Amino acid sequence: MNIPLLDLKRQYQSIKPEIDAAIQHVLESGRFILGPEVKAFEQEVAEYCGVKHAIGVASGTDALLLSLRALGIGSGDSARGITRDGNIPRAKVIIPSFTFFATAGVVHNVGATPVFADIDPKTFNLDPSNVRRILTTNHELRTKIKAIIPVHLYGQMADMDEIMSIAREYDIAVVEDAAQAIGAEYLPRAIPADKTISRGRKAGTIGNLGCFSFFPTKNLGAYGDGGMVITNDDELAERVRILRAHGSKPKYYHRMVGINSRLDALQAAILRVKLTHLSDWTTARQRVATRYDKMLHDVDGIETPYRATNRSHIFHQYTIRVKDGCRDALKQHFKEQGIGTSIYYPLPLHLQECFYELGYKEGDLRVSEEASREVLSLPMFPELAQEEQDYVIQQIRAFFEEETN
């Protein structure tokens, strides 16, 4: 049996008439960059998330980059002039070390410096206590830190109450990297007696800005690159809109230098169709995850994903921990049995060669380093058949039974 990690063909076949009609409509319109499809999609995402503004951009990476630019974060943003040695001070941004490279890449590319923090061992998300430690142990460093980028990894939100409390205390901006978490919710810790709060805050809506990726493999994926910035801040929204179009407003008049990062109308039309199915797909993913939990909870040698009590998990990935140094062997076993898996991520960012000059070394962020040696993501997509999932579970059990014999 061959079971992929993800099967986008099945999803397309399930909504083919809707997708084909949406594409045909755009082709006949002749409007391919921004335009009415993008505007409509922006409005629909804003309504879905419960925010005032949604701005379509070319990728999730650009969403992060433009958010930092809109906040004025970059080389010299906190300078107040030039240092004695003639150098412009670089702003610093706290990010988790255990995440996709783009989070660190955009910090570098706006002219700032990433400050790597460790993660919570249960959720794999940014550890607020580590963030506070960074801010309280070095006054000079603290004055240069201008933003925190919590990443809602695998589809579960970081501890935003604690992160926002720290950010307010130190007057630091927060940009949520919700690339893997569209639709995830941060639930109230306690329901009021009158039960007026029926749902939580969506991923991307708690910080100053939130960023989504519509890369094809995401829960809401385009048929190419795409991204979005959401915010309730009118001024920040306007800056992002200007920056995504070379910094011009009106056209050909530039108050700032921006980039070319506009969402294609074709991608917006496709995403508008998919957005109407997202809630059902999320429910299907959660159903698959719950079954994995139930069937794997007693397998010695692995840990199933932790679910924080005040957060919904939309399972962009179903990621287990494999103990006792068996992760790579289990991955190879899956490969031999025709089962697709992946490691997100095999090397923490603080140990990447390109950041060597920052001075981090092995052992500095132990939780991130341990996670990189133990995580393994199993097949996870809404259309995964029960017999396919049974086969995955069977092969996990077979592997560990053989290991103990």
Walk me through this protein's architecture:
With 405 residues, the protein is of the alpha/beta class. The protein folds into two domains: 8-275, Type I PLP-dependent aspartate aminotransferase-like (Major domain) (Aspartate Aminotransferase, domain 2, 3-Layer(aba) Sandwich); 278-404, Aspartate Aminotransferase, domain 1. The protein is built from 14 helices and twelve strands. It has helices spanning 8-14, 16-29, 35-49, 60-70, 102-109, 128-137, 139-144, 160-170, 234-243, 265-275, 278-296, 327-336, 366-374, 386-404, and strands spanning 53-57, 92-96, 113-117, 145-148, 173-177, 185-186, 201-202, 209-213, 227-231, 302-303, 318-322, 375-378. Strands 1-9-8-5-4-2-3 form a seven-stranded mixed β-sheet, sandwiched between helices. Strand 2, helix 5 and strand 3 form a beta-alpha-beta unit. The two termini are 25 Å apart. Residues 78-88 and 194-198 have low confidence and may be disordered.
